[in-house]
Specification:
This protein is of the alpha+beta class and 435 residues long. It has helices spanning 2-17, 49-63, 79-82, 149-152, 231-235, 319-330, 339-345, 378-381, 407-410; strands at residues 18-20, 28-34, 91-97, 102-109, 116-118, 142-143, 158-159, 165-170, 176-189, 196-211, 220-223, 239-243, 253-257, 269-272, 282-283, 287-290, 293-296, 306-308, 315-318, 336-337, 350-352, 365-369, 372-376, 382-386, 389-392, 394-397, 403-405, 413-418, 423-428. The strands form five sheets. It has a six-stranded mixed β-barrel with strand order 3-4-11-5-10-9. The chain has a four-stranded antiparallel sheet with strand order 17-16-22-23.
Length: 435
């Protein structure tokens, strides 16, 4: 009698703690953790802060391989485009799967579509430190059929035993995931109410063959991209926002979903959100102003030219913009340049800020969105790559490629993705204290 009574108590307990969301009217806030912080499951105390920075810089250049060509409209179901998305990101979220609320750490990716995790039994998986998710223990787990449109949206679907949908994703760094497409309950622990917020019948990938450059500390990817198959697309949530604190402050970030994700008030800068290009979100940069120097972009400004990406460290812009910014800054910063570091990092401007003669102060730097302007601070433009050496966190690309607005440029801004009105909004904030 006692053994059968205990599961009943647990079931009632979880029901009491959980709130069932109604898709597009849901509002909740979840913590995100930067992978390099001591509070992260990724954290390795034997790797120095500057080694981590160098790794992030190198990863950003690898990320360039997945950038689409400007002015090429790509369907969200394009197989060739879906397979180009990278396998690594920088921010992690804890997601709870199934009716047993099984916790998994997933990489948050605004450029990925399918949310997936490694599943048990898994004989062809990368080594994972945490226990694998066993879908057979979830009462809400159900395999998807080949006839469902979600199956056709998974990149390279195949039809398996009893018409089960099998998916395959190949990533730009030659990592891969393959397994069964299924529906299951996804839950999040709200950072405000400390209650579970649950979504039923969410399509996920249950990976049984996964490999490449995935970290053993994570179980898979949480897809927030512009796609009907992503978490945003399935739940029809029309707003989400986040606030990224400075890189090594060892504080948690917050991501908010639903109506309360809206940012408003003084200082909000809004620009059109472009959703024509695969699973990415894009916007238009028309130029910069550095002090009194105006620098205009040579790229097309009609359909968008820059992807916003929280999973990339650096910002990549056309060479003419980056060279203009480098020239304007080098004429105003009176510090010794570190040419050796510029060569090592492939970054266009590095300074030794510890020298006695150095006065490292920046002129006003503004990025322009047509008739709107957003003022940037040092934390958005420079990154310390070695003790006392700061480098410009911008790199040049050919003008026929999309630019990428990386997470350094997003630091200490609340950023809202308004998918209903197609607006991308920025407002300055102290993200280490923002709720």
């Amino acid at each position: 009698m006692a053994s059968s009574f205990k599961p009943l108590i647990l079931f009632v307990f979880f029901c009491f703690l959980s709130l069932k969301a109604k898709s597009n009217d849901a509002h909740f806030q979840v913590e995100m953790i930067h992978r390099d912080l001591p509070i992260s499951p990724f954290y390795n105390p034997t790797i120095s802060k500057f080694q981590l920075v160098r790794q992030a810089v190198n990863s950003s250049f690898v990320r360039l391989k997945s950038i689409p060509i400007l002015n090429t409209t790509l369907s969200t179901t394009s197989k060739s485009f879906t397979s180009r998305i990278r396998s690594n990101g920088e921010y992690l979220m804890k997601v709870y799967l199934g009716t047993q609320y099984f916790p998994v750490w997933l990489i948050v990716d605004t450029g990925s579509t399918l949310t997936w995790t490694q599943c048990y039994p898994c004989e062809a998986c990368y080594k994972q430190k945490a226990r694998l998710y066993n879908p057979q223990l979830s009462l809400s787990y159900k395999l998807a059929k080949c006839s469902e449109w979600q199956c056709l949206d998974t990149g390279y679907p195949t039809c398996g035993f009893k018409s089960r949908c099998n998916y395959l994703y190949n990533y730009v760094d030659f990592s891969y995931t393959a397994g069964n497409l299924a529906t299951d309950r996804l839950s999040f622990l709200s950072s405000k109410s400390n209650q579970y917020v649950s979504f039923s019948r969410i399509y996920i990938g249950c990976g049984y063959a996964n490999g490449g450059f995935f970290s053993p500390q994570t179980s898979g990817i949480f897809g927030l991209g512009n796609s009907p198959l992503s978490f945003i697309g399935q739940t029809k949530i029309t707003k989400f926002s986040y606030c990224l604190p400075e890189r090594f402050l060892n504080v948690r970030s917050k991501i908010t979903f639903g109506p309360k994700a809206q940012i408003e008030g003084n200082g909000v800068v809004s620009t059109p959100l472009i959703t024509y290009f695969g699973s990415f979100y894009a916007f238009t940069i028309t130029g910069f102003r550095v002090g009194s120097t105006e620098i205009r972009s040579s790229q097309s400004t009609f359909f968008g030219n820059t992807i916003i990406d929280s999973g990339t460290t650096l910002t990549f812009l056309p060479y003419d913009l980056v060279n203009g910014i480098v020239n304007a800054l080098s004429n105003t910063i009176s510090c010794q340049r570190d040419y050796e570091m510029e060569y090592e990092t492939r970054l266009g401007l590095c300074y030794d800020v510890n020298s006695m003669s150095c006065n490292f102060s920046l002129p006003e730097i503004v990025v322009k969105f047509n008739d709107r302007e957003l003022k940037l601070k040092e934390v958005n433009i420079f990154i310390e790559v070695e003790d006392g050496v700061k480098c410009l966190a911008l790199a040049g690309i050919e003008s026929f490629l999309f630019g990428t607005w990386g997470n350094i440029a997003q630091t200490n801004f609340k950023i809202e993705y308004d998918l209903a009105d197609l607006k991308l909004k920025f407002v300055p904030a102290n993200c280490s204290k923002s709720g």
